[in-house]
Amino acid sequence: MTDAPKILDGKKLSQAVARTLNKKINTLAPTVGRPPGLAVILVGENPASKTYVAAKHRFAKECGVRTFDIKLPDNVSERELTQVINDLNTNIEVDGILLQLPLPKPLDGAHFTRMIAPEKDADGLHPLNQGLLMQGLPAPRSCTPLGVMTMLDLALSNISLNDTTTLEDIPLASLAGKSAIVIGRSQLVGKPVGFLLLERNATVTFAHSKTHDLPAVCRAADIVVAAVGVPRLVKGEWIKPGAIVLDVGINRTDDGKLVGDVDYDAAASLASAITPVPGGVGPMTVAMLMSNTVENFERRNGIQV
After folding, report:
1. With left for phi above 0 and alpha for psi between -120 and 50, is residue 201 left, alpha or beta?
2. How far apart are CA 98 and CA 137, in angstroms?
């Protein structure tokens, strides 16, 4: 391709999400009598987790979501953490519960995630909600895959993001007739994003470490979602001219640089749209966490989502 690709700026798109949610909350909160509430549980002193939690609090404030901050020591007992989650499950002012992972050992993150009431699942990781996704029924969806889908809508639109853009300005894209490859099959990203692509009528291929001739499979795809956690795995020559490239990976190289799962510069020379790393999918994960919380708030109060 000779034209420069559309750069899918996750920071700008997340601001469009914030404006959308803020507008919705300003309309609904007076009727319900309160704003949506998000409880964030942070166990221990993991620096990365503390940074992520701070970003989520900042974004919640922009949207108008009330936050409940629960900080626990890294030696908290299973019994104490269970009680915290149970209390939040019954707190009528809490619509979303986020348990920041990973938990300090020997606590099992998956075990405690399953304790969160499905209707208050902010991450979309509860097994019940993942099952509802497979059935195509309403439920909180995994945040990163939701962010990927919103970026795909932007890629297939004629919208240029500005300081007034909201999600209402970006139409949901029809993916009928388009082929998509999802490189990675994790519970967190690969599998759920594949189901979301199927919901939009894309023809989806799941690829992984056992896939034969991955470059050839990739070159046949109109949409490439890379979510495998291997720095620059996807080479430029793997990209079909005009394809949309959505890079979920974020890896730190030996020299300290953050890079994605895609060789960005080489892929950008062929793609019609591409996400940068950092600044692409990452900010959208936080935005979709807030979107899930607001949708939970709507469902719990009998408001049409």
Report:
1. left
2. 22
Whether 36 has a pLDDT exceeding 50, the answer reads: yes
Do residues 206 and 261 both lie within one domain?
Answer: yes
* Total-model pTM: 0.93
Name the catalytic one among 56, 178, 191, 240.
56
Active site annotation includes 74: no
Q: What is the distance between the alpha carbons of residues 260 and 256, in angstroms, rounded to a whole number?
A: 13
Q: What is the pLDDT of residue 253?
A: 87
> Which domain CATH number covers 81?
3.40.50.10860
Taking each helix axis from N to C end, the angle separating 47-63 and 10-32, rounded to the nearest 10 degrees, works out to 60
d(C-alpha 84, C-alpha 164), whole Å = 39
Distance of alpha carbon 295 from alpha carbon 249, whole angstroms = 27
Q: Check residue 168 and give its pLDDT.
A: 95
Active-site option among 6, 15, 100, 247: 100
Q: State residue 275 phi and psi, 5-degree precision.
A: -95, 135
Q: Are residues 269 and 155 in the same domain?
A: yes
Which of 121, 123, 247, 261 is labelled catalytic?
123
Is there a catalytic annotation at residue 210? no
Domain contains 134 = no
Query: What CA–CA distances, in Å, run from 165 to 161, 187, 279?
Result: 6, 32, 18
How many structural domains comprise the chain?
2
| Known active-site residue 12 | no
